[in-house]
Each structure stands twice: as structure tokens, then as C-alpha cells.
């Protein structure tokens, strides 16, 4: 029986455990290029004890980024910055390194939280750009109306996803995740609430799936066998005119037929008038469970999960194969280490931090109630006359470094 710390094979990679760091936008890029912030942010999360760290939603073209501060993977300079980033992350842990690729569609050209915005559309004087969508329907009355995509737009963006995938491979990422959720372009095609087309790209569920599946096929073709491909999918739009879990099941079956290695099940964010139930820890796990049961696809559960015991139960009970942690990782970038201690598992620490391991620090259990004693094969180097294992009251006062 698998648990949270059992390895998981995804395509051509093996994650050392089933904790994923969710992709989380940082709005800190300059001209789509990763900055020092991304190294600090992702570098800390590489030392979280997670088995997989996925970098934020990255636009496959400049027009597809959410905001001015979002990453883009369209130019050589953007690719080189990400290659440098991956090279510096790689030695920090044995976690897999992934990147999420997407196109924001009508929700592009937005103010970011770094600009004191709440996701509203940029005005022209702040550098707004033309947005695209399956139908010329704005997100709400305060947003610019997107251009309805032509056949040429569909071809261009499909190729952009494939090219960004090739760039991600060259940059050294182990895994690429396609963002088809949260009200962004591929999700806009999937939902009848936002796709009002009457051609081959709209109408029936089969037609609404056509463009997202073409994108995923292009990404799959661009990805070598030693990497992994995932897709983030919406399970429900929380809207009476939107897509439901009954629509997600056949979509995931089609993704599996294309060779997708896993899906992450999310929900909502398509339209501002959605009726969303109050979010509680694990509130979306049931969606992952049904998809797993009905499709046989490897699934990742999300949704305010912060308790290691709950995360472990999700995997042990077969409700999902992996758990993605977002806010809890921002709050505690050592979440995986502390989860291992709580659940009685041993995870590797970087040598520089070995003195903080539970077996090297007599105060650990006081600070982390419920931690289990673990016998580790990884020991910190102890200088002659080390005081690390003495009772705290016997230790000399710390000296300035």
C-alpha cells in the first residue's frame, strides 16, 4: 500500500515521494525572464522535502502571460534564464523539477498582486495588450473584450505550446504540465459558459475538447520519453451553465489515450459569478478520487491541504496518487521535512542543514509535537567534543559566527 513517502513513477521520471509543490505565480519576471526571486523562491522549495517542485504558470507566448510580471518561454533569453535556474536548483535535492505551461486567453493583460491589483484588466496606459479567447466574451464588464480566435490563431498557439515544451526540455526540466484549468485559454474552450462557437471548435463536448487535445498532442510529440507530461484540469466550473465533473471524465480519458502521465484536479475560477462552496481542507479530493476510479489515470489532489496526516490518508486510501501543497509550502517551506517527522519517515537533508534533523536535535520534538523518532542513515558531521546531543541546559551559550 502506497503512502505519502512512497516513490511515484510519472512517465520517464521517478519522484522520491508523493508530495508536489504546486505551481504558484510569483509575478516577479522582467520581460518574461526569471529573476533572482525565482531562484530564492524555488531554491527554498527544493529543500522542502517534496518529491516534485513545479515552477509557476509560464506563458507560451507574450500575449498569453497573465501579467507583465509573469514568466514566458518564447525567446532564447527566456529559455537561457530558465536553464540557468534549473542548473542551480538541481544540486539542492533529489526532487523532480517541473514547469507549468499555459495561455491566459481572455484573462491575460491583467494587473498582478504586485501592482496592488486584484486581477483586473490593465488599462491601455499601463501597457495592455490584445487578448484572445474562443468567443468574444469579456471576463466581466471591467475587462477588455477578447478577440475571437481564428483558425490561424489556433494553429499559432498550438505551435507555441509545442515550441515552449521543446524549450523546457532543453532548459532541463524533468516534467511539463499543461494548464487547462482556472479559467485560462484551454479551459475557456472546454467550458460551454465561455465557448459559444458554432464551428468545429465549439458546441458539443467533443468539439470543445478539440483544441485542448490538439495542444496536448503537440506537447506530447515534443516531449522525449525520459520526461513526464501532466495536465491541470478543472473538475467543475461551479456554474449552472459551465462544465461539470461529468465533462471532465471523458476529457481525462482522452488525455490518457494521448499518453498524458497524470492530471491535477482543480475547480472554479472560470467566471466571477460562480457559486463556490466554502473551501475547507481537502474539499477537492473527491473530484480526484472519482477521476481516478473512472479513468485509471494517475491523479494529483489539491485544495487547501496542509495537515500531513490528511495528505497521507488521501494517498493511503487510494483517493489520489499524489498531493499538491501550495499555501502551506509558502507558509512553511520545510513542510515535507516536518511531515516526514510527523509520519515517522526519513527524508534526506542537505549537508548544511543536517544539524536540524530530528535525530540530531534534542529540542525537535518540543518544537514539533507529534514527531516520531526516526533512525536515519544520514548523520551530521560532529566535531570533536560536540555538544549537539547533550541536554539543552548543559550546552554552552551560542557563540557569534
TrEMBL record:
Keywords: Flavoprotein, FMN, NADP, Oxidoreductase. InterPro entries: Aldolase_TIM (IPR013785), OxRdtase_FMN_N (IPR001155), YqjM-like (IPR044152). Pfam families: Oxidored_FMN. The keyword Lyase does not apply. The keyword Cell cycle does not apply. It comes from Pseudooceanicola nitratireducens. Residues 364-401 are annotated as: Disordered. CDD domains: OYE_YqiM_FMN (cd02932). This is 2,4-dienoyl-CoA reductase. It comes from the Bacteria. Its cofactor is FMN. Residues 374-387 have a biased composition (Polar residues). The lineage of its organism: Bacteria, Pseudomonadati, Pseudomonadota, Alphaproteobacteria, Rhodobacterales. Residues 3-338 form the NADH:flavin oxidoreductase/NADH oxidase N-terminal domain. One of its GO terms (molecular function) is NADPH dehydrogenase activity.
